[in-house]
Amino acid sequence: MNSSSAKIIFQSVIFFLLQVVIFRNVALFDVGFCFIYIAIILLLPIELDRIIVLLIAFVLGLMVDVFYNSFGIHASTAVIFAFIRYYWANTMTPQGGYDSNSSPNISTMGIQWFSTFAIPLLFIHHFALFFIEAGGFSFFWFTLFKVIISTFFTFLVILLFQLLFLTKKRRV
Amino acid sequence: MGRLFLLLFKYRAMLVFVLLEILSSWMILSSDLSVSASAFNSSNQIVAKIILFSNATQNYFGLTTLNQELAHENAKLRQELTSLQQSVINTSNLKVDDTEIISQYEYQDAKVINNTTQWLNNYITIDKGSSNGLAPDMGVINQHGVVGKIHSVSKHYAVLVSLLHNNVLVSSKIKRTGTIGTINWGGSDPQIADLKYIPRHISPSIGDTIVTSGYNAVFPEDIPIGIIEAVELKEDKNFNDIKVKLENDFTKLSFVYVIKNKLKIEKDSIEFENFILDTNE
To answer: Which residue of A has its CA nearest to B33?
Structure first.
């Protein structure tokens, strides 16, 4: 195991604990939710085998489900997220391709690329999550409002994390 | 044959995706039905420990209000006790002799360690489980009224379906008229629930109290649920549309009481023999 995969595992554990210990209790004005655990999948190396990413997403989703008492909802949406992420990353391949084993973050890709990469994916994930949870489209506008606010909330938290913990690496 | 395998190999990611989606959809659809999957919700030991830890700090800041509420309840209970004692003296000739009926309900206090109100189907986790004699389908109340029903238990923890759950129906009645209806949460506002099946000829008025009917063996009679906030009677409907403001503030649950009904099995079995079980849930 090399240092970069150790870092990814450490980061994943931190994100998961943050989700179940802190962000599980956070609801800004009853509409803003943060699902930072999805960053674990978002920040996996792009070169990683698709099937492994799907399986990681499924297991991760199930673990989150246990805490939310929502058996299956997070698992299915995390798998959707992982599936779409592959195609979206392919579409957004920068000139010269991705560095091998690099995770897509703002220090390797820049903030502009990262935003365009992350926001649509987060939106789709949150959209699926909230509408499956609501059991259909009966509260369409209210749920959509929740989706939009939560997407930006999650994105901001992911961004903050990278700004806090990746700056040191850039200065070196 | 070789080409088939080649094709399968080419679309292997798609196949895995579809399989996982089918699996998780099956989980979502079956989760409401199966009580047995208790290892996969927050009544699981490790999960409950983590949740307890995350709630510990929050609880500390809420201690003042908690104390006040408990003191309030103490005062209320003391008052009820004195009035009961008074009435026993006055009506000693009307005493019920069957001790099994008198001590039919037993209460177990428990602390809420996890609770949601923002979803369509909400669950509550409490810190007492089968080692305290809890079992699925027991009713749960607090000092304000109905809270929910036990869904699954582990040794030290239990998960309740909150009253704020789309599939929970509570048999209830309008206290003033005695009409039986069913309380079901509409799904949007944690303060408001719907009272269904109140027929046209009854005209409930705003401010009427809604209490449990005691028809299903889960809740005793006359546990408060809420008060009527709005009544609407449409031309083509057989029943009134009634909105009930819930007594409980589900965003602030702290301590609850689980009701153990010692005569539940007896009641259920005689009803089952006569095929009327579950008709008034």
So the answer is: A71
